[in-house]
Amino acid sequence: MISAKVLPLFLGLFVVATQAQPNKIEYNVIGLLNDTHTMAVMVDNVTYPLSFDQDRTQILHTGKAPVASHGYQYLKINKTSNVTEVEPFLRQPIDKDSVNEFFNRTWNKQSVSEFPIVYEPLKAIHRVKSDLHREGEIPTIHLVANQVDMDKMHNSSSLEDPKVMSKMTYITLNETLSFNEAEISLSGRSSRWMPKLSYNIKLKKKDRLAKFRRLKLRALDTDPSYIREQLAYDVVKSTGLISSEFSFVRVFLNNQELGLFGIIETFKNPWLANSFAKGDKKYKNGYLYQGKFQTAASSAMGHISDLSYHDNITAYADGQYKVKVEADGEEKENYKPLMEFTKFIDTAPTTSGEDSVKAWKKKFDTDSFLRSMALEFLLGYADGYTTMADNYYLYQNLETDTFFYIPSDMDLTFGSTMFKLDDMWSGNYSTYPGMGTRPLMNKMMQVSEFKQTYEGLLLNLTQQIVNPKVMNRRIDQITQLIEQDVAWDSQLPRVGKDIMGEMGSAESAPTSSMEDIMSQLGNTLPPNMDMNVMADFAKRIGANVPFQVAVDGPTGFQSLSGVKEWVQNQTSIP
Ligand SMILES: *[C@@H]1O[C@H](CO)[C@@H](O)[C@H](O)[C@H]1NC(C)=O
Ligand SMILES: *[C@@H]1O[C@H](CO)[C@@H](O)[C@H](O)[C@H]1NC(C)=O
Ligand SMILES: *[C@@H]1O[C@H](CO)[C@@H](O)[C@H](O)[C@H]1NC(C)=O
Ligand SMILES: *[C@@H]1O[C@H](CO)[C@@H](O)[C@H](O)[C@H]1NC(C)=O
Ligand SMILES: *[C@@H]1O[C@H](CO)[C@@H](O)[C@H](O)[C@H]1NC(C)=O
Ligand SMILES: *[C@@H]1O[C@H](CO)[C@@H](O)[C@H](O)[C@H]1NC(C)=O
Ligand SMILES: *[C@@H]1O[C@H](CO)[C@@H](O)[C@H](O)[C@H]1NC(C)=O
Ligand SMILES: *[C@@H]1O[C@H](CO)[C@@H](O)[C@H](O)[C@H]1NC(C)=O
Ligand SMILES: *[C@@H]1O[C@H](CO)[C@@H](O)[C@H](O)[C@H]1NC(C)=O
Ligand SMILES: *[C@@H]1O[C@H](CO)[C@@H](O)[C@H](O)[C@H]1NC(C)=O
Ligand SMILES: *[C@@H]1O[C@H](CO)[C@@H](O)[C@H](O)[C@H]1NC(C)=O
């Protein structure tokens, strides 16, 4: 026992000690508030106010408070009523400044294992190092823009393409970056017919976010599992191909929570330099052509982007292809290199033997294509080259003087489809929708060396990556990573017009929706598309397939298998 004489002295020292060492740390939390509310942190049941820096961003709330002995929670306080919304869990005490935490998320970073590298990147690929796609984290993006203009954009038809300037703030665990004059526009074609919209973001000419200037925020709205694009881009990378990479972000627009999105890179400069020359500013790129299936104009001419040869260069410019990026210093609308390449395909040797293989390799990075085709089948691209002559790029690589195949847009994969699943996962690639109808694949499959390579790829990729034993671990970890955000996202109000949902619920499709769709695509659908599955697809857009059911399957919809169900079925190839 401390004697009465010593006690005051002891207490005195204690007071001095706490004054000299206030033991206060900084708490940081991301959360969107209206000016009706403020943010605070409650440390061991005592509330301390947090504030934001008006000149920086309104979504990051910061303040000093003591180190907790039991724990802490963030809370939102209604300024007029003092009613609080407290996080329903206790955060463990920390003794250093917090990272940028997120309101009502129980974690900041998770450990997620990556897929194995099955093939090293093809020789032509030299991808820049970038922090854009952070494993195990979900950064936040806040767009501040004129709300009236944004409302107009959200209500626009596919014929218009409004653009709105914004200030974009990007926040990771330890960084806050701001970009003025970040241009927002709606992204995609069919994705505009969904209730949740996807966006393009273009930064100012000199601005870069993790080395990229143009990005897409993907709504993931056709995928109730939310993980298809992540997995598909991951497998593309593990197969030694180049495309965008993928990760998740939380997105806010002004005072509204837009939800959980995917972020990908747009295939426009500096993407080519970043992918083929480690970001070299002096890189001289060739043409980048995009296959877009068809437009109303090309449909009228009977042209799709299947890489058939036309003896008439104007036939390439009907809209089925797009010059995504022009060659350095060259004119924009030039289809000559593409025409020459399709002429090569048309006349290329189909006999087996070294000479044939050499002739092909002189013009084309054949591995970039065969690997991509193997993935179309294994991952079930319902909107790729085989099924729809859609969603790919051909890059004229000037350094190697060959074309390079780039797969893109991987939302309709792993059994999310407009085609009959039984044809897609029969285990026999000959039954795959569209197989045997695309000139480039047909020609190459006639060369026995390429056919062997393709079949070898199917086998090796199945053994080494596209099977439940390898994939389910990451599938489970990604599912866990986004679980709380999916719960948040799925109850948020949407800003889009939901043309797809209108079609799915109406007896006959409303004319305004059909007009919008036909103005984009023309009135011919691919001959092998299954109308029953297509109708089922429209119907399920409005139906809430639960997250875990969408991951595991079966879902009860013909147009949607579970992700794991797909992997299981497609890899039980005899
Ligand atoms: C802010 O207020 C608007 C209008 O009342 C509301 O729609 C919105 O959801 C609120 N945002 C937040 C983050 O509370
Ligand atoms: C905080 O308050 C709760 C409920 O009012 C109480 O159960 C808990 O014991 C308090 N904790 C501390 C550390 O005072
Ligand atoms: C804040 O409290 C006031 C007074 O009770 C109430 O009228 C208002 O709706 C509350 N605001 C929000 C956004 O909940
Ligand atoms: C809310 O709290 C503040 C500060 O403690 C106080 O001044 C105010 O009267 C409270 N308002 C209500 C409606 O309780
Ligand atoms: C926190 O998130 C859960 C769902 O994950 C939700 O039920 C709850 O209402 C949220 N609480 C607050 C205070 O936002
Ligand atoms: C959306 O656009 C349609 C016509 O395109 C118009 O009739 C409607 O009023 C608009 N709605 C809003 C909320 O702007
Ligand atoms: C933030 O953390 C990452 C790794 O987690 C690190 O590479 C980066 O340098 C950090 N940035 C700052 C500003 O501390
Ligand atoms: C060439 O193609 C264009 C566009 O498809 C078409 O309008 C034109 O009639 C074609 N010309 C010839 C000579 O076939
Ligand atoms: C695969 O399907 C094609 C076309 O239906 C058929 O001709 C072929 O015999 C099938 N191959 C096997 C191994 O079943
Ligand atoms: C598949 O794997 C085998 C054994 O490792 C290898 O010999 C073969 O070259 C591979 N084939 C392809 C197309 O990668
Ligand atoms: C696919 O999986 C389902 C169960 O989810 C099963 O009923 C069906 O027979 C499987 N099909 C194939 C081709 O493996």
UniProtKB/TrEMBL annotation:
Protein's UniProt name: Coth protein-domain-containing protein
PANTHER family xrefs: INNER SPORE COAT PROTEIN H
InterPro entries cross-referenced by the UniProt entry: Spore_coat_CotH_CotH2/3/7
Protein keywords: Signal
Signal peptide range in chain numbering: 1-20
Pfam families, sorted: CotH
